[in-house]
Amino acid sequence: MQIRVKVKPNSKAPKIIEEEDGSLTVHLKSPPVDGKANEELIKTLAEKYNVPKSDVTIKSGLSARQKLVEIDM
């Protein structure tokens, strides 16, 4: 399953918002430095979809706010 994700780093509280078009907006506490926000995104999505972190892959947008994430279900 592939999902379009908009990431908002440095948020006060982590949360996931499901948009009407099927994409997600994910608020993360981590800063976008040294891949910390990407690590938190993978952990957050793995918990949401109840899969191991190894099943969540960022396909594109590693250094961008708009990402394409693949989740092996």
Automatic annotation (TrEMBL):
<dbReference type="InterPro" id="IPR036591">
    <property type="entry name" value="YggU-like_sf"/>
</dbReference>
<comment type="similarity">
    <text>Belongs to the UPF0235 family.</text>
</comment>
<dbReference type="InterPro" id="IPR003746">
    <property type="entry name" value="DUF167"/>
</dbReference>
<protein>
    <recommendedName>
        <fullName>UPF0235 protein DSM106972_036050</fullName>
    </recommendedName>
</protein>
<dbReference type="GO" id="GO:0005737">
    <property type="term" value="C:cytoplasm"/>
</dbReference>
<dbReference type="Pfam" id="PF02594">
    <property type="entry name" value="DUF167"/>
</dbReference>
